[in-house]
Amino acid sequence: MEEIDKLLEDFKKRDRRALSRLITIIENNFYKIQKKFYLLLDGTQKSYIIGVTGAPGAGKSSLINLLISAFRKEGKSVGVIAVDPTSHRTGGAFLGDRIRMQSHALDKDVFIRSMGSREGKGGLSLSTPLAVRLLDAYGFDIIMVETVGIGQEDIEIFKLSDTGLLVVTPESGDDIQLIKAGNLEEADIIVINKADREGADRLYKEFKRELGNVKNSYGFSPIIVKVSTVKKEGISELIEAIDIHKRFMEDNRVFEKKRRERNLSLFYLLMDYTIRKTLREEGIILKDIESGNIDPFTGVKKAMNVICE
Amino acid sequence: MEEIDKLLEDFKKRDRRALSRLITIIENNFYKIQKKFYLLLDGTQKSYIIGVTGAPGAGKSSLINLLISAFRKEGKSVGVIAVDPTSHRTGGAFLGDRIRMQSHALDKDVFIRSMGSREGKGGLSLSTPLAVRLLDAYGFDIIMVETVGIGQEDIEIFKLSDTGLLVVTPESGDDIQLIKAGNLEEADIIVINKADREGADRLYKEFKRELGNVKNSYGFSPIIVKVSTVKKEGISELIEAIDIHKRFMEDNRVFEKKRRERNLSLFYLLMDYTIRKTLREEGIILKDIESGNIDPFTGVKKAMNVICE
Questions:
Q1: pLDDT tens-digit readout, B206-257
Q2: CB atoms B286 and A270 under 8 Å
Q3: How far apart are the C-alpha atoms of A114 and A98, rounded to whole Å?
Q4: Which residue of A has its CA nearest to B120?
Q5: What superfamily would CATH give domain B41-252?
Q6: How far apart are CA A181 and CA A176, in angstroms?
Q7: Taking a contact as any Cβ pair under 8 Å apart, which residues of chain A between 261 and 290 contact chain B?
């Protein structure tokens, strides 16, 4: 327990090792710091959060790498959480991507960390927002969260972000399909990466046509930006698009609304975590519910007794 | 309250109006019967549950219509819950589909009911499994649950089912993409509907190739069946495929495992519902968490006090 107190103290002194260690604890043994975690939060939530999602191979990490450089030139500090898709059958160059970003490894105002994505409740869902809050408390101006965009996770990452980027490429012919399926209407900016390749213009036009009249749940029409991370082109346009979106949110009080939703969402995730943990430790009730010895309704009554003991 | 007691009594006498009325209460005012709902469950869970999902226009309702006829010929009673996609931008002939199934309207051993699909927790997630448990308690041999398959809901419906059917058509060129995206690996049977149309054989081969070596989380390789609901062809093959899957589950004790998971899942949904309802009624804590007046961790402590009062 003393070790934890020391960690919290070091964190408040902006010690990077303490930050890194706390993220490891969030990932693996969150219960160890749950009761003291609130001491780390100042409630101000000053960081600007950018979510970056897209299919494997879309070039998310290269893009983040260039965004880091751009933000650093503006004098802003940057924290990055990259959620590893351990639960998906994607394979590929994920670790390589991480290493690529290490060109910023010696910059003390850049912090990059990958986290495992565990399936199910309390895995990705809880640890990612907790890590983001931790980076916020540490004081980064910008926080970027990268995740492989498959289905539902896109939406989670957009909810977690102030500005949500969807990265697509001319090669990924299925992206328009995904948009039609309705999963991606909440992206704030569509980044067409590998814009030097064949088909980029066609894709741009297709997105323009599909999304031209679409407004998301708070009235914003996604901005479409062409980028080439290889040729380092389009990054300033992307930064400008992020600014446009930020101003829209400020002008329409969306910023505030998003923060409120995130507070509530984190609260419910914590409630869920606490309750599941308490019941797992008790053990018997869950077994009886699983086996059908007691019905789920009676289970709720009994569970309430355990939780309220 | 007396009205509820009368309803429960009528339900136990297998009164259809009571069944119908109870589903309406589940949809709109579940809190009214929450405390007495356990009285309806006998814990045996005898019904066989078939989930049917697929894109709009794939012919799910026509298929269910033919399956009802086939099961009725075997002397089995059938209950159907069709989840309406009110939260999606799909549009289309949903109500028309409902009416089409009314060819069984006069059969007292067939019960068909559509339910709204509300977004968010406690909407679709809670009311659908509750309705299924109710149909089970009523004593239907077969329960079918139909839903429009977009993203995450597919998986939900497969978890809720003993056998999960994914309905595709030669026209829907994106289905292979969806499978590649990893969303549909948990389907037990892929039904290629409109098999009389061009491209059905190509689609069949494509699925065979993609899914030939795929086993789902409990070791079953999806069966692919061609059906034409218009020509009423392939239905007996589909019934046989359902039987094969059922036998596989019995032989490998998956049946039992699925039921255990469903019990636990319904319990957690009920816990969540109860907690959210209690906190919404209290009101102040949620507001303070949303606004950031209290951090989510302090919120959990305060919420526990309210719940445990």
A1: 888 887 778 888 889 999 999 999 999 999 999 999 999 999 999 999 988 9
A2: no
A3: 8
A4: A265
A5: P-loop containing nucleotide triphosphate hydrolases (3.40.50.300)
A6: 9
A7: 261, 263-264, 266-268, 270-272, 274-276, 286, 289-290
Q: What is the C-alpha to C-alpha distance for residues B196 and B231, in angstroms, rounded to an integer?
A: 8
Distance from CA of B296 to the nearest CA of A (A): 5
**Percent of chain B beyond pLDDT 90?**
44
Is the CB of A300 less than 8 angstroms away from the CB of B270? yes
Neighbours of A257 (CB within 10 A): 14
Residue in A34, A35, A37, A38 to test binding to B, most B beta-carbons within 10 Å: A38
**Which segments of chain A belong to CATH 3.40.50.300?**
41-252
Per-residue pLDDT for A122 more than 50?
A: no
> Which ipTM value was assigned to this complex?
0.80
Contacting B residues, span 62-91, partner chain A, CB-CB under 8 Å: 88-89
Q: What is the share, in percent, of chain B residues with pLDDT greater than 70?
A: 84
Helix axes B254-282, B296-307, angle to 10 degrees: 90
Structure-token match 């309803």, residue found: B7
CA distance to A17, A86, B284, per residue, from A38 (Å): 19, 29, 20
